Amino acid sequence: MRTQVAIIGAGPSGLLLGQLLHKAGIDNIIIERQSGEYVLGRIRAGILEQVTVDLLEEAGVAARLHAEGTIHHSIELIFRQQRHAIDVHGLTGGKVVTAYGQTEMTHDLMDARQAAGLPTVYEAANVSIHDYDSARPRVRYEKDGQHHEVECDFIAGCDGFHGVCRASVPKGAITEFEKVYPFGWLGVLADVPPVSPHAIIYGNTERGFSLCSMRSLTRSRYYVQCPLDDKVEQWSDERFWDELRRRLDPETAQRVITGPSIEKSIAPLRSFVAEPMRFGRLFLAGDAAHIVPPTGAKGLNLAASDVKYLSQALIDYFAEKSDAGIDAYSARCLARVWKAERFSWWLTTLMHRFPDTEGFGQRVQEAELDYLVNSRAASTALAENYVGLPL
Questions:
Q1: Average pLDDT, the chain
Q2: I need a labelling partner for 222 at 20 to 30 A (CA). Which of 23, 103, 180, 261 fits?
Q3: 249 neighbors 81 (Cβ within 8 angstroms)
Q4: Spatial contact of 326 and 315, defined as CB atoms under 8 Å apart
Q5: Is 298 an annotated catalytic residue?
Q6: What is the C-alpha to C-alpha distance for residues 157 and 165, in angstroms, rounded to an integer?
Q7: Alpha helix segments (H runs only) across the chain
Q8: Is 130 a catalytic residue?
Q9: From 95, 298, 308, 352, the catalytic residue
Q10: Confidence of residue 355 (pLDDT cuts 50, 70, 90)
C-alpha cells in the first residue's frame, strides 16, 4: 500500500491529524494496535483550551462540542478551608476553557473518519517502522495473520508514551528528561451533577490534594491524592466520597452529590520530555514525546498544538514543496511544551502534599496561595497559562 502520511496511533492526536490532512487533500492511513472500543474506553482529560477548540472547528468536528461542552470562566482554589475564585475570563481578556471529555472528542473524530471512508487499521499486531531517515519510509504490521507494508512520505508517531515510534529511535539520537512524583491520583467517574458546573475546584489541605471537575452537567470526575502503593480495591465508593469531602471547604463539601462510581483508577504522576521531536521523516506528537502531570490540564492540549504545527508543516510541504515547517517542527513544539511542563510542575508542587510538606512546607504553600489569590499579577499569570499560551 502507498500513502502520503502513515499515522501510528488512533488516539485524539492521530485522529485529529488525520482529519486535518484529509481536509487538505493529503492521503493518510491510521494504524492502531488496540481495538476502537479500547481506545474509546480510556478515561482521560476533559478541559480544552481555546487553541484546541479552534483546531476542532478547523477539522470540522466541533458541532457536538459546542452543543454539549460547558464553558468555564474561572477556577477555584481551596486552602485553609476557604474557597477563592480566579476570574480566568476577566484576567485574560475574555479567554475561557471548555469542559468536554476526551472520550467524546475521540468519538467525534472517529465518526468523522468513518463517514469520510478513510482507512484505519485497528488491532494491528507487531507494528514496526523502517527507513524513516530515508526518502521512502515504511510501516509494517500484521492483521488477521497477514503481513502488510505501507510505503509513505512521512510517519507521524502519535502512539503514546509506550508506543513503537519513540522506541525505534536510536538511544544516541534522543534525550529524555523525566521527573516522577511520589504520589498518585485516585480518580472516580460518576453520573452525578458536578459540585460546580462553571469552574474546576482545586484543593490544598494537610490531608492532600483534591480536584473537582466535570465531563458534563450530569457526569462528574473527582480526584484525591493518594500513595503510589495504594490499590483501587482499598477504596470503596464510601471511603472515596468521605475523603473528598474532608479535602474541601465546608460549603463545597455539603454540595457534593454522591453516587456509584462507573470508573475508578489510580494514576501515577510524571513529567517527561523527549528531544528532539523529529527524526528525518518521523515526527513524534502528543504523549509519544511528552507527558505532563494532569494538574494543569495540559496533556491533551499539548497534543493538539503538536498536531497544529505538524499538520501545517505537512500541508506546506505537499502544497508548496516547502521544508520550512518540517525543519522548524521540533523547536516550535518544544518551546510550547517546556512552558506547559513548567506550569504543570509548578501547580503540582503548589497544590500537593509531598513527603517533606510537614509544617514549614505546608505553611509556605498556603502563603504562596494567599499571595496568588490576592495579587492581580500572580492571578493573571495563572490564568494566562491555564487558558493556554498563544501558538
A1: 95
A2: 180
A3: yes
A4: no
A5: yes
A6: 5
A7: 12-23, 36-41, 50-58, 63-68, 88-91, 102-115, 164-167, 237-246, 250-255, 299-320, 324-351, 360-374, 376-387
A8: no
A9: 298
A10: confident
Cell numbers at residue 211, please?
480536584
Q: What are the strands of the beta sheet with 282-284, ordered from one edge? A: 120-121, 28-31, 5-8, 154-157, 282-284, 278-279
Q: Is 231 a catalytic residue?
A: no
Of 100, 132, 202, 309, the active-site residue reads 202
Residue 148 pLDDT exceeds 90: yes
CA-wise closest residue to 225 among 213, 251, 243, 237:
243
Residue from 72, 95, 308, 352 carrying the catalytic annotation: 72
At 179-197, the pLDDT tens digits run 999 999 999 999 999 998 8
How far apart, in Å, are the Cα atoms of 389 and each of 31, 174, 279, 283, 340?
Answer: 31, 26, 26, 23, 9
**Three-state secondary-structure class, residue 140:** strand
**Number of alpha helices (DSSP H) and beta strands (DSSP E) in the chain:** 13, 20
Mean pLDDT of 120-140: 97
147 has catalytic annotation? no
* pLDDT tens per residue across span 272-310: 999 999 999 999 999 999 999 999 999 999 999 999 999
Q: Which domains does the chain have, with CATH numbers?
A: 5-50+100-178+270-347 (3.50.50.60)
Could you give the CA distance from residue 36 to residue 40 in angstroms, rounded to a whole number? 6
Question: What pTM, to 2 d.p., does this model score?
Answer: 0.93
Contact in structure between 108 and 64 (CB atoms under 8 Å): yes
Asked if 72 is an active-site residue, the reply is yes
* pLDDT band at 43; cut points 50, 70, 90: low
Among residues 141, 293, 294, 329, the one annotated as catalytic is: 294
Cβ neighbours for 103, distance < 8 A, ≥ 6 positions apart: 40, 41, 42, 43, 44
**Residue 356 scores a pLDDT above 80:** no
CA 374 to chain centroid, in Å, comes to: 30
How many CA atoms lie within 13 Å of 304's alpha carbon, on the beta-carbon side?
27
